[in-house]
Amino acid sequence: MSDYHIKNLEEYFQVYRRSVQDPESFWASIAEEHFVWQKKWDNVLSWDFTKPEIKWFEGAQLNITENCIDRHLATRGDKTAILFEPNDPNKEARHISYRELHDNVCRFANVLRSQGISKGDRVCIYLPMIPELAFSVLACARIGAIHSVVFAGFSATALATRINDSDCKMVITCDGSFRGNKIIDLKAIVDEALKNCPCVETVLVAKHINSNTPLKEGRDKWLHPLLNTAPKECIPETMAAEDPLFILYTSGSTGTPKGMVHTTAGYMVYTAYTFKNVFQYEEDEVYWCTADIGWITGHSYIIYGPLANGATTVMFEGVPSYPDWGRFWQIVEKHRVNQFYTAPTAIRALAKENLSFVERHDLSSLKVLGTVGEPINEEAWHWYNDNIGKKKSPVVDTWWQTETGGILISPIPFATPTIPTFATLPLPGIQPCLMDENSMEMDGLQVDGRLCIKFPWPSMARTIWGNHQRYKDTYFSAFENKYFTGDGALRDTTGYYRITGRVDDVIIVSGHNLGTAPIEDAVNEHPAVAESAIVGFPHDVKGNALYGYVILKETGEDRDHDNVRKEINQIITEHIGPIAKLDKIQFTSGLPKTRSGKIMRRILRKIACKDTSNLGDTSTLLNPEVVEDIMKNVV
Ligand code: PRX
Question: Is 0.85 surpassed by the pTM of this model?
Answer without folding.
Answer: yes
